[in-house]
Amino acid sequence: MFTKEHYIQYLISTPVNYTCTHLADHMEGTSHDAINDYLHRGKVTARDLWKLAASLIADRPEAYLIIDDSVQEKPHAHRMDLVKRQYSGNTHRVVKGIGIVNLVHSAGEDYYPIDFRIYAPQVDGLSKNDHFHDLLRIGVISENGKNRTLSVG
């Protein structure tokens, strides 16, 4: 059975391709449709991602935070609310897709996503810079009442 932990571990392990098809190709006995159905039913939040990634992070003086945006292309989407035409640095052209703003921690060897936001200015009126600012402002990440500050090198 496909679970939230499976999906988050996949997000943590791949810095390039976050599609259901790519994940299904790497999980024996799991289809693209099963993953897609799960994502429609379930909800994966940034807090869920942080809970699994926190124990993997080695926060050292040389560690740093990376803020980046990405576009998950949806070329065949015709009625998806979050899909809009936007520039993709990956393909160097304007594409139809969903924008995501990511906060990633690295100490040089590994990269761990620790927070993300959907870029949907038509829904929330926020720019990518607004999201970047919020991600950095939340530099103190609260977990069960305890604050953990990630240092930026």
Structure at a glance:
The protein has 153 residues and is α+β, with helices and mostly antiparallel strands.
Task: Supply the number of helical segments.
Answer: 6
Largest sheet: 4 strands, antiparallel
What shape does the CA trace take?
A: globular
Q: What share of the residues lie within helices?
A: 25-40%
Strand content: 25-35%
CA distance, first residue to last residue: 40 Å
β-strand number: 6
Which regions are unreliable across 5 or more consecutive residues at pLDDT < 50?
Answer: 140-148
The chain-level structural class is alpha+beta
Whole-number radius of gyration? 16 Å
What is the overall pLDDT average?
80
Helix-strand sequence: HHHHEEEEHHEE
Write a structural description.
The protein has 153 residues and is of the alpha+beta class. The chain has helices spanning 4-13, 20-25, 32-41, 46-53, 121-124, 128-137; strands at residues 64-73, 84-88, 93-106, 111-119, 140-143, 146-149. Strand 2 and strand 3 form a beta hairpin. It is globular and about 45 Å long. 13% of the residues are buried. The model is unreliable at 140-148 (pLDDT under 50).
